[in-house]
Structure formats: C-alpha cells, structure tokens
Amino acid sequence: MKRFIEGASREQATLFPDRLDDYVCEDNPVRVVDVFADELNLQDLGFSGAVPEATGRPGYHPATLLKIYIYGYLNRLQSSRRLERECGRNVELMWLTGRLAPDFKTIADFRRDNGKAIRAACKTFITLCRQLDLFADAFVAIDGSKFRAVNNRDKNYTHGKIERRRGQIEQSIERYLVELDTADRQVAFDPVRASAKAERLSGKLARLRIRMERLNAVEAALGETPDQQISLTDPDARSMATSGRGSGIVGYNVQAAVDTTHHLIVTHEVTNIGHDRAALAPTAMQARAVIGSDTLKVVADRGYFSGEQFKACADAGITIFVPKPLTSSGIKRGLFGKQDFIFDADKDHYLCPAGQMLTKGRHRAEHNSEVNFYRHLSACFTCELKPHCTHEKLRRIRRWDHEDVIDDAQHRLDEAPNMMRIRRETVEHPFGTLKAWMGATHFLTKTLEKVKTEMGLHVLAYNLKRVMKIIGIIPLMAAMRAA
C-alpha cells in the first residue's frame, strides 16, 4: 500500500540492543519504582525473606516481588495472574526484575504473607512527601467512600433481607402449588405433558424448600454475630448504603485525608463501618501526625457532624469546617428550627423569633453527655407565633454543655463559604481516580486485613503518579536516594 506509514516486515531479521537498559529511557516511571524499592530497608519493615536462609532452595528477593506489585498497581494490573503474564512479555517488567518471571502463586503469596510490611512500605512514601515539603499548608479534606468487596449482595444477610427473601420464597411456593394442582387436573386430558409439568414443578418446590432451610440456618447464625450481619464470600464485608436512593453495596468504607494543595492522600483507613460519624477526629489526628504539624485545618461534609468529634478536634488544636445538617422534624413540618433562636453566651439565654428570652431550666445527662433545656414558662401560651414554633405547650431548646465548639465551627464556615467547594474539588478526585483504576469489582482480595494491603498499594500508586507529575521523575529519584 502506498502513501501510508508502513511497518517492518515480520520476516526481517532485527539486531536488538545489547542491553535491556536501552529499552527504558531515563525518565521512565518504572525507574522510580526500581529506586523506591531498592532504597527501602526491607528487613526493618518486616518483609519475610529479606535475609536469605543458609540452606534450602533460594527464593525471590522481596524487593523484586514488591517492584512487580508497585508496577502493576501503577499500570492497573492488580491480578497476580496478569502480573505473571506481563513478566514474560512486558519489556519494562523484564528490565525491572532482571528477566525474572515468578509464577502467579508466588506473587499472590507475597502479598498475602507480607501485608503489614507492604503497608509500612507504602507509608514511607508519605514520609518522603513530607520531607519534600509537599504538606506545608497543613490543610486537608476528609471524606469516606464505599468500595465494593468480593461479595455479591445475594450473599449478604441481615434480618430484614432474610424476611424479604423468605416472603419471596413463600410466594413462589404458593404459586407453584397452584400450578401443580392445575397439572394434576390435566392428567386425564394430556397425561404426558401434565406429568412432565408436575415433575418440573416438584423439582422447583424441592429447591425452594432447600433455600428456605438455608435461610433458617443463616438466621440462626445471624443471632450470634455482634452487628447482626453475615457475608458468606468475604466475612468482613458489610452492607452499606450509598448516595443513590434505595441503593447500596456490600463492601468497605475507605476514609481518606487529602492535601488541598497537591491532592495527595496523606492518610487513609479501610473500615467496614457504613457511616462516617465517628471518623473525623481519628482521621484528622492521624493526618496531623503524618504531616508533622502542630496545627491542622480540616474540611469535611455534613456526614461527619458529631459534637463529640468536634470536641475531640478542638481539644487537639485542629480547626474544622463541617456544615451542620438540618435534621429537625419540626423544620420539615414548617416550624422554626434551632437556628432561628439566637444564643447569647454572656447572658446564657436564647432569644426566640418573637423576641422573648428562653432561660436555662432543667439539666440532665443524655448518652454520656450533659445537656440543658431553655424555655419561657409563660410567653409561649400567648405568643402569636406559637403555631409556627411548636405544637407542644412550651417550646424548649436543647443545648449541649460543649455546644460552643459546634457554634464556633458554624461561624468559621459562615465566614468561609468556599470551603465546601474546596472539599469537593479535593477529596472526590482521588476516589474517582482509584475506582476507575480498580474497575467495576473494586477490591480483588477478601477479609479486612488483605483489603487494607490492597488499598495501600492503590494509594501508593496514586501518590507516586501525583508526585511524578508535580516535581518530575528524575528529581523524585534523586530525592529518594538522598532520603
């Protein structure tokens, strides 16, 4: 064909370069993987096999297997079988491993047996980022995202799911029994077809009864679990609600603190708790320890709103920006909400929309916290705004003893209205990127410990790509060698 770029003939003999190194340019990302793994003290990190045995068959050096995994996660190759295949045909992996090609079982066993050491190696890169002064602003956005586990929704059971599935089975049994009666009546007219139909329906009924017995067995085991939930494929995976209406997944909740300047994942934690209410303070304190700063600014969405978490952050010197959710049932009914009452801290009273003062009354303990109730004993009976305020005799305002930390957080957010935009632009980008890399199934491993290792490798790959983009490949390798 003329006037097209033509490829080389398959019959043409080719003299390849004498050195495999000639195939990998100086600014190839695979060189970063090589330097990173070589500069680690694998024995101190806890890798098994870092010191070879005096006898027996030699094994692969853990640095070699670690390089294979880091390269794989950088290039969306998480499966051990795919990594085995790439080791035999990928020139970059040949360069990285010295043309070693471990089998998939060796590769998979390395990740299984060195989970804590791999996670520790991933954290060392964050230490390097701190040395490069990439966290100078000490400002992070915190969020949680649900990741699917290796567990189908039909293999996850709660009491509610068991009741719904039992009801579906009972309806199917009733329908098949009616059809079976009809088949019995048709025997006299068409015995061959009626007998075949009756046999088929009897088989379906037998299978449904087996399913019912399995449900009963799962329900009996469900009562012995602490959270009243069982997952058959991955025992640590849990059913979690997602933002979609009426939807949910069986998986894990990944908490992450992301630097607002460079969008690096400062710290992360994999949990099987489906909500974020108790994660703000622990994640913020862990991020501050990683950054190495005395102070820290944190922005998060309203899913993290918790008075106890706010108090813990305030005591630790962490400045938070978290919106307050409006969950009052009175607001939904068109009544005044708590935000319509102005609190005067100096005089210790509330000013209601009608201009009346609500003074402190009863004091009591609620759920390990102390609260006060503010009310006006007489004004509510004659107030013209009462139909818009309360349907009770008196309107009472509940105030927590440490509610000043909540008020301070709200005042800060009012003075910085762009914080929610910063949060959205910062923390949702890494989650979207990681899920795109993982594919539809997300995690490939089972149980919480193994999932933590897998997530650590994903986070390391993400941060490596970010830092290579920020400072360049060659300067990053120089920083690794100098660290």
- The overall pLDDT average reads 89
- Roughly what percent helix? 40-55%
Q: How much is the radius of gyration in Å?
A: 31 Å
- Helices, by number, come to 17
What does this structure look like?
The protein is of the alpha+beta class. Helices cover 46% and strands 16% of the residues. It is built from 17 helices and 13 strands. It has helices at 29-38, 42-45, 62-74, 80-87, 91-97, 104-113, 115-131, 159-185, 191-222, 280-291, 307-315, 329-332, 379-382, 403-415, 419-438, 448-471, 473-482; strands at residues 139-148, 156-158, 229-231, 238-241, 248-259, 265-271, 296-300, 318-321, 342-344, 349-351, 357-366, 369-375, 397-400. The strands form three sheets. Strands 1, 4, 5, 6, 7 and 8 form a six-stranded mixed beta sheet that branches. Strands 9-10-11-12-13 form a five-stranded antiparallel beta sheet, with no helix packed on it. Helix 1 (29-38) packs antiparallel against helix 3 and helix 8 packs antiparallel against helix 9 (191-222). The longest helix is centred in the middle third of the chain and has 32 residues, at 191-222. It is flat and about 100 Å long.
